[in-house]
């Protein structure tokens, strides 16, 4: 962590409880300075979040380098199109424009799972892996990212596929495992149905599994009865920040 970091892209991961950010060295995929975290505003409207972002970025040296920011929703051309777990006022917000104005820097917004997928494909579990990689984040819901030969296909939202007559994440998300107190064996049975559906639709070369539960991957990944190689994500909590910085620099 030496040298001038002012010309490095900045990544920010905007989550339900916290907003984390740091400049990222794209040569290594590592933070160039210690990550800073601020609380997500209780009323997480776009304007309130923009003020929190400005507070976070002000704790680092002034820079004109681009900023990438994750958003837990569908993002098309910088405009947020869904808001399942954030304030509904986000829908239709041109977040690129709002945050560029708030930070006085070029800002590019990206779906949070897409950012994680980019990071894992470039620096993590899928580094150097040719063909189609599908990252899934198993958490409150199921997020997804499609990366083909290192190129992101955005906004896949594969957690909302219908599997056995149900919205996939309503049966197979980690939050459901916890709420229903499922054994790893029973959860793995549901996950098998989910990943088999993805196999039939996409014939991927690799699955990468992220989300906090990926730290316990040895307890459930070996139980899945699928044909495709499946591995745990390796960047864990850094993936959003790193992927956002990478996206902003593309």
Features:
2 domains, Nucleotidyltransferase, domain 5, five-stranded mixed beta sheet, 250 residues, alpha/beta, 15 strands, single chain
Brief summary:
This protein is an alpha/beta fold.
The DSSP helix count reads 7
Give the full name of the CATH homologous superfamily of the largest domain.
Answer: ATPase, nucleotide binding domain
Task: Provide the domain count.
Answer: 2
- Biggest sheet layout: 6 strands, mixed
The best one-word shape is: globular
Kindly report the CATH topology of the largest domain: Nucleotidyltransferase, domain 5
Look at the helices and sheets and give the structural class: alpha/beta
Overall mean confidence score, pLDDT: 95
Low-confidence stretches: none
Number of strands: 15
- Would you list the SSEs in sequence order as H and E? EEEEHEEEHEHEEEEEHHHEEH
CATH class of the largest domain: Alpha Beta
Roughly how much helix do the residues carry, as a percent range? Answer: 25-40%
The CATH architecture of the largest domain is 2-Layer Sandwich
Q: Strand portion, in percent? A: 15-25%
End-to-end distance? 23 Å
Rg over CA atoms, rounded to whole Å, is: 18 Å
């Amino acid at each position: 962590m030496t040298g001038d970091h002012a010309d490095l892209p900045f990544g920010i991961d905007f989550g339900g409880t916290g907003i984390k950010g740091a400049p990222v060295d794209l040569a290594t995929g590592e933070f160039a300075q210690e990550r800073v975290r601020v609380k997500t505003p209780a009323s997480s409207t776009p304007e309130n979040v923009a003020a929190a972002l400005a507070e976070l970025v002000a704790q680092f040296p002034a820079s004109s380098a681009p900023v990438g920011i994750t958003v837990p929703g569908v993002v098309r051309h910088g405009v947020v199109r869904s808001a399942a777990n954030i304030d509904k006022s986000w829908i239709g917000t041109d977040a690129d424009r709002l945050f560029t104005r708030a930070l006085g820097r070029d800002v590019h917004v990206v779906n949070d799972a897409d950012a994680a997928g980019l990071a894992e494909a470039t620096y993590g579990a899928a580094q150097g892996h040719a063909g189609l990689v599908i990252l899934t984040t198993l958490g409150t819901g199921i997020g997804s990212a499609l990366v083909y030969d290192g190129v992101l296909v955005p906004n896949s939202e594969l957690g909302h596929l219908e599997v056995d007559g149900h919205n996939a994440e309503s049966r197979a998300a980690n939050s459901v495992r916890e709420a229903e107190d499922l054994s790893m064996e029973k959860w793995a049975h549901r996950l098998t149905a989910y990943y088999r559906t993805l196999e039939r639709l996409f014939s991927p070369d690799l699955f990468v599994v992220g989300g906090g539960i990926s730290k316990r991957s040895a307890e459930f990944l070996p139980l899945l009865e699928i044909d495709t190689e499946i591995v745990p994500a390796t960047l864990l909590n850094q993936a959003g920040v790193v992927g956002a910085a990478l996206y902003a620099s593309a």
